[in-house]
Design goal:
heterodimer, A: alpha/beta, Rossmann fold, eight-stranded mixed β-sheet, three-stranded antiparallel β-sheet, B: alpha/beta, Pyruvate-ferredoxin Oxidoreductase, domain 3, six-stranded mixed β-sheet, 19 helices, 23 strands, about 40% helix, globular
């Protein structure tokens, strides 16, 4: 296609990594969000995605700036604070073949956008919805967000008195069909989860703890690198196997310690058990795991819940095969002779 | 008092809401319409599901005047709670029908009074107890039919329409009506002058409400996406999309070329509609005042990011929750300036059910041509009441999609294009939409500052350049929106400007001014903002311009003041807002009072 790099750096779709890049990031040096943007680029490259077949959406905040920093060749819309869920919902009807990333933050999703978020989830809107969660408002310079833990002490703000919102729990109670949590410092896991999310059939909520190096990176803060590294308790080692690569990669996991989750498109998520016996297709398990993690002060990461069986929002509409935005007058305006019948239907 | 008054009176029916009287009332209006008599019916109802007083007022006019009147020649009441008020509201020489189970004193001797054995007849009807209240309504239909001379055949036609030809429902209602009519023939002695008589003044018309017309017009405009949230009085617009889209816009194999989605709130409804508009769909939402307030921030984004979307505001009276079931033209300034920052919006002002249809499709054209939000301001009176209207005409121009570049266009341009550059000097740039596979197609939409290539910038000049272009675009809108309807005759002394649902009241008032006091007026019915050149030309011709509106503040006058400060001394507000449709009498007297000053 357009790529000019050496053949070895070209994926099966004919693109180089450069074709997935965006503008240089203007976020702070060391910001967890940059690492997530890089994993999105790597994921799309690895999965041979055609960049023009992706849409990117965001709300307002540091996280929401990041769609500018990946997939320059994809359409995107940086919308209103907390309102990306509806913007993306409408846009997804334009061309049902397109897939979407939503980039949000904890303020954007868990405060101002909570209502829209939960309704987007309950409709199984087909989007990979990433919450870059740092427990703090960055762009407005360091106020508490709704995911900040009780007792967090921030300069100029004092001590947080209120219980945090758990985004994965909110997604689960809203009947999400894919819920995962990760840590921006764990690039390998972020990438594996992104791959699974992009192959998921429906809404995929990824709550990624993404430390704010400027306003919330004290050693004892839950959304910091130090705390995250010390407390991360992965449920499983996770690996994603695209449908086409299945045979080559199967051997990486030893029999008996591996659980496979088959995705709608034929690809597979391989979960290698750690010490915990965890079944991500059981919703009750997911609730229990999140409860336990809060109680034990773990940062539990991995694929918490998945259900590939539900129809997506777009599928419930039985749309024509042609993308709606390519229909022309002949499809859109009823024929001239129908107007008489319509007038007769009035009194 | 003339002996016979035929086809020229108002009739109001007082019932309890939730009792099913709406079917009876609409049946009466439809029957009169089918008798060829110009008629209008207005539902004056409470914000309540069941149990509160509600009124339905019917204007019957051989001269074709269908505005509401305050004066009621005939009043029918089934409601003890409103009995005294209803009795007092009958014009001297008028007629009062009431249910005879209401044991309240009749303290008037200047009117004709008829008792109706409503309870007795509904008990006698062969229906379940639950349906008795419903049948009670058919009793007054039958009695009125007999006493006024309404043709029972046209009543049957109306029932057939209402019950979509379901024989059992039609027959059971009709037999109650017939029994009541027969009872009246035998037991009531006609001693009042009012009656109706067949005419031939409605055969070129159909009857519909504005929300239905708007929905069907939007469908003929190729609407592909609608998101909405329930709100009185706008809900039936979206619900009607769901009635007619499956009939008109499914493919042979039953697949949809459209999607209608009920959102979680108006914030989401407008967000979805804007997402779809950005995605290249002909997209709309419909709401009322409180929804408009919630949509404000998103409208600003659509204005600035240049996303086509149509927003129907079926106005009710505010501020706040206001009177949710009462009409008003109170949202004009709010919508004109909606959302923070510099801007004015494009607004269409349908003045009839016919124009609700016409602006339904035109608004979708305009939104895509202008890449901008386009508002359509209807109101409860226009949207929810049944009106006589010319039949809907098939759109006379092809669908206009505006400046959209697809793969072949970009190929031809060798991929060189700029999202926000004014190539044609009309302020309207070119756009691409998602799904376009050309590698140069994509851009990132945003509400933040951007340059001609949609890149983020805080550059002062880039900001101002863009805002200046948006103003040029708004000026282009001036050349695309529907022109006003102007009527003038030689020797017109004053000009009158009006818009929307006040049309029938204003037109009747102007006719009456000419007839009664010899005051000749020229009129301009505004159909859109921004104003086309004709508006200023009109205003310059007359020393005094009366601006008639159903709001407290004279909102159009406020806007015209700001647009034409040099002409502002000519403007006189004729504005009034109490939740009811304006009357011709009030308009006429208000103009006369100011003329005499």
């Amino acid at each position: 296609m357009m790529a000019t790099s050496a053949p070895s750096q070209i994926n099966k779709a004919g693109f180089s990594k450069n074709d997935y890049r965006g503008l240089p990031s203007t976020l702070c040096q060391g910001c967890g969000h940059n690492s997530i943007a890089n994993q999105i680029i790597a994921t799309c490259y690895d999965l041979d995605i055609i960049p023009e077949e992706i849409m990117k959406f965001s709300g307002i905040g540091c996280s929401s700036k990041s769609p500018a920093y990946f997939l320059n060749r994809s359409f995107g819309f940086n919308g209103l604070h907390g309102r990306m869920s509806s913007l993306a919902t409408g846009a997804l009807f334009a061309d049902k073949n397109l897939r979407a990333f939503g980039l949000s933050g904890d303020g954007d999703t868990a405060s101002i956008g909570m209502g829209g978020f939960k309704h987007m989830v309950r409709r199984n809107t087909p989007i990979v919805y990433i919450v870059e969660n740092n427990g703090v408002y960055g762009l407005t310079k360091g106020q508490f967000s709704a995911t900040a833990e009780v007792g967090l002490n921030l300069k100029h703000q004092g001590i947080n008195q209120y219980m945090p919102v758990d985004i994965c729990m909110e997604a689960l109670t809203s009947n999400a069909t894919f819920v995962a949590r990760s840590f921006a410092g764990d690039a390998k896991q972020v990438k594996a989860l992104l791959k699974a999310a992009l192959s998921h059939h429906g809404v995929a909520v990824l709550d990624i703890i993404s430390p704010c190096v400027t306003f919330n990176n004290q050693e004892n803060a839950i959304h910091s690198y130090t705390w995250g590294k010390d407390h991360e308790a992965p449920l499983h080692e996770i690996s994603f196997v695209p449908a086409l690569d299945e045979i080559e990669l199967l051997g990486e996991f030893a029999e008996g310690s591996v659980r496979e989750v088959c995705m709608h498109d034929g690809s597979t998520v391989m979960l290698k058990k750690l010490e915990k016996d965890y079944d991500p297709t059981n919703r009750a398990n997911a609730f229990q795991m999140l409860e336990a993690a809060q109680f034990q002060n773990w940062l539990v990461t991995g694929l918490l819940y998945i259900d590939e069986s539900k129809p997506t929002l777009i599928e419930t509409f039985n749309l024509v095969d042609t993308p709606l935005n390519r229909l022309t007058e002949i499809d859109l305006r009823p024929a001239r002779e129908t107007i008489e019948g319509i007038n007769k239907m009035m009194f | 008092m003339p002996k016979n008054i035929i086809n020229d009176f108002s009739l109001t029916i007082a019932t309890v809401n939730g009792s099913g009287s709406q079917t009876a009332n609409v049946t009466l209006v439809r029957a009169l319409f089918k008798m060829g008599i110009p008629v209008s019916g207005k539902n004056l109802f409470p914000s309540n599901i069941q149990g509160l007083p509600t009124w339905y007022t019917i204007r019957i006019s051989k001269d074709g005047f269908i505005a509401r009147r305050d004066e009621q020649e005939i009043v029918v009441t089934l409601n003890p709670a409103s009995f005294s008020r209803d009795l007092a509201s009958v014009q001297t020489g008028g007629v009062f029908f009431y249910a005879d189970d209401i044991k309240l004193p009749i303290n008037r001797t200047d009117i004709t009074v008829y008792q109706m054995p409503v309870k007795q007849m509904s008990r006698a009807a062969n229906v379940s107890v639950g349906l008795r209240d419903y049948i009670a309504n058919m009793v007054y239909v039958g009695i009125l039919a007999q006493m006024l001379g309404i043709d029972l055949d046209t009543i049957k036609q109306a029932l057939n329409f209402h019950f979509k030809g379901k024989t059992q429902a039609v027959e059971s209602n009709y037999s109650s009506i017939k029994l009541a009519a027969d009872w009246a023939a035998q037991n009531l002695k006609k001693s009042d002058p009012y009656s109706v008589k067949r005419m031939d003044s409605t055969s070129d018309y159909i009857m519909a409400d504005g929300n239905t017309a708007a929905a069907i017009g939007s469908i003929y405009g190729g609407v592909q996406f609608a998101a909405w949230y329930p709100i009185t009085p706008a809900s039936t617009l979206a619900e009607t999309l769901n009635v007619y889209l499956p009939q008109l816009r499914k493919t042979g194999d039953g697949k949809q070329t459209y999607a209608v989605l009920q959102a979680e709130d108006e914030l989401a409804a407008i967000g979805m509609a804007i997402g779809a508009g950005w995605g290249g769909l002909r997209s709309m939402t419909s709401t009322s005042g409180p929804g408009i307030s919630l949509m404000s921030e998103y409208v600003g984004l659509a204005y600035y990011a240049e996303v086509p979307v149509v927003i129907w505001d079926v106005q009710r009276i505010g501020p706040s929750t206001g009177l949710p079931t009462r009409t008003s033209q109170g949202d004009l300034t709010a919508v004109y300036y909606i959302s923070h920052g510099d801007k004015q919006n494009v607004i269409l002002l349908p003045g009839s059910v016919y124009e609700c249809f016409e602006f339904g499709w035109k608004a979708l054209d305009l939104a895509e041509q202008l890449q901008s939000p386009v508002f359509v301001l209807s109101d409860l009176d226009l949207g929810m009441n049944q009106w006589m209207t010319k039949p809907f005409d098939y759109p006379d121009t092809p669908i206009k999609r505006g400046k959209v570049l697809w793969e072949a266009d970009l190929e031809r341009l060798k991929g060189i294009w700029s999202r926000y550059k004014d190539i044609d000097e009309d302020g309207i740039p070119f756009r691409t939409v998602p799904g376009n596979k050309h590698p140069a197609a994509a851009w990132l939409g945003r509400g933040t500052g951007h340059d001609e290539d949609a890149r983020y910038t805080e550059d002062a000049q880039a900001w101002e350049r863009n805002m200046t272009r948006l103003k040029i675009k708004y000026n282009t809108a001036r050349t695309l929106v529907p022109k006003p309807v102007i009527k003038s005759s030689k020797g017109s002394a004053i000009g009158v400007i009006y818009y929307g649902s006040t049309g029938p009241a204003v037109e009747e008032a102007l006719s009456s001014l000419k007839r009664a006091v010899g005051l000749k007026t020229a009129s301009l019915r505004l159909r859109a903002l921004p104003c086309t050149d004709e508006v200023q030309d009109f205003i310059k011709k007359y020393e005094r311009i009366y601006i008639v509106e159903a709001n407290r503040d004279g909102q159009l006058r406020q806007i015209l003041n700001s647009l034409m400060p040099d002409l502002a001394s000519r403007f006189r507000s004729v504005c009034h807002s109490d939740g009811l449709p304006l009357t011709a009498k009030w308009v006429k007297e208000s103009i006369l009072a100011q003329e005499e000053k």
